[in-house]
Amino acid sequence: MAKLYLKFEQNEQVLKEVSLTQATTTIGRLPDNSVQIDNLAVSGHHAKISWDKDHYVVEDLGSLNGTFVNSQRVVEKAALKHGDQLKIGKHLVEFKHEGPVPNFAGAVKTGPSTPKLDATMLLDTRQAREKFTGKAADAGAGPLGISRPSWMSQPFATPKDRLGMLNILEGKTDQGKYVLTGKLTMIGKSNMASIKLKGFFAPTTAAQITRRDNKYFLAAAESRAKLKLNGEDVIGQRELSSGDVIEVGKVKAAFSFQE
Q1: Using 50, 70 and 90 to split pLDDT, how confident is the model at 53?
Q2: pTM to 2 decimals?
Q3: What torsion, rounded to 10 degrees, do the Cα atoms 152, 134, 59, 105 define?
Q4: Residues 6 or more apart from 38 whose CB is under 8 A from it?
Q5: How far apart are CA 93 and CA 3, in angstroms?
Q6: Is 128 left (phi over 0), alpha (psi -120 to 50) or beta?
Q7: Is residue 184 within a helix (H) or strand (E), and if so which, with residue range?
Q8: pLDDT tens for residues 149-182?
Q9: What are 4-14's pLDDT values in tens digits?
Q10: What residues contact 122, with CB distance under 8 A and at least 6 apart?
């Protein structure tokens, strides 16, 4: 079985050991992550590790400070091998995998997701700046005197988006209708979930809906969560179309696009 060993960078003392028992393991500052790192240099949903055909890969989820494997920044995704060191904020995550193929290896891999924006402190060190661009490059100082890399001064593109909607048909949630404006929509009873499920037995994080290129994709967030799309169990990732019916436990919702 593959395992992660969370360490603080300065002394490399092991703070936490996590076994990879699910097809996808998320790392970030918010409590709904599989591996929570409570540090302002870590984004809310910073990175994820998932099984890809015959090996594990790590993907950065649009974090501010980046994800590094053996000092190399992850641009899209990077394959992991036994003994690799991940750098996330000011912490190290050692990856070890010497065991057999995991039992979820046949599941379809979930696609990359992009987290909602959150307040992450930019690491203001020479080493961090060099890892961003390969050289020290600042574009002036931001609030509190924190230096900004040059790419942060560029304007963001604002394409016309086609927004999805969820209408609750059955079950208890905090609203009856949701407009899916974020890149990542979490479903569960967690306080950080965008769509909050009610009930004592509702899973903390049951499912996630990601938006990429004006398309929406549904995937389970916990292995024990009962997630169905049009009456079929969801394995891996499924693209959503208007009229699709999503079932999460006792909650049933219809997906459509906003006119």
Answers
A1: confident
A2: 0.46
A3: 170
A4: 29
A5: 10
A6: alpha
A7: strand 184-188
A8: 444 444 443 445 678 999 999 988 888 999 988 8
A9: 999 987 677 88
A10: 64, 65, 128, 142, 146, 147, 148
Placement of tokens 């389970």 in the chain: 220
d(CA 116, CA 186): 10
User: Measured in Å, how far apart are the chain's first and last C-alpha atoms?
Assistant: 47
Q: Are 205 and 220 in contact (CB under 8 A)?
A: no
Per-chain mean pLDDT for the chain: 78
> Which residue pairs, CB below 8 angstroms and at least 24 apart, start in 255-258?
255/164, 255/165, 255/166, 255/216, 256/164, 256/165, 256/167, 257/162, 257/163, 257/164, 257/165, 258/162, 258/163, 258/164, 258/165, 258/179
**pLDDT-based confidence at 72, cuts 50/70/90?**
very high
215: amino acid identity, one letter = K
Q: CB-based burial of residue 111 (10 Å sphere; 0-12 exposed, 13-18 middle, 19+ buried)? A: middle
Which phi and psi angles does 132 have, rounded to 5°? -70, -45
Beta-strand runs (E) in 71-150: 72-73, 77-79, 85-88, 91-96, 138-141, 147-149
